[in-house]
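Section 5.1 Outputs to date
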Amino acid sequence: MNINNPTTFSTPALVYSTSNSSGSAGALRADDTLAVFSTTVPTNISTATVSAATGDNAFTSREDHVHGSTAVIAAASESEMVAAESTTVFASPGTTQYHPGVGKAWAKADQTGSQSLRSSYGISGIADAGVGLSTITFTTAFDDTHGYTGSIAVPNGVGTFNNPSTTTMRLDSRTYAGNLQDVDELYCMFMGTQA
């Protein structure tokens, strides 16, 4: 120890805390380096709602702290999807089908033999109405004040819609010469507003 300078120096060990306390180590010098920044990488929050937490990093700004948050964007309701106007909600899988610009029903049908639906959405059944004629029933009725539109495709021929109602539609399959024919692949799709 230098008798003219009895001060004991040591490596700084200052930490940030939520309360004051007295230390017991030596003094600081003018050219000491203080560690005030850590190399901790903040945790990404991948959920919409998290609980607040103070964190345990004792360096400045406590980078690993977590702010409480809540989901601020809500799923659109059925009426909001039908209105198709809101820009502050999101379309969820459970409400997308209510948007007027989304297909409401489609089917791949077989008219040969006992008519059947090979695959479908929004269609509850198909009935044989004669050669080249099928009547499909919608799972959910369409709004008669709005109406609906659709398309039909028939291999080696043409398809047309007939006898529309809010709950059913007849599909006609014809040859290019105009004769009714049963086909093994008939495709149809419908769009519009449902009741």
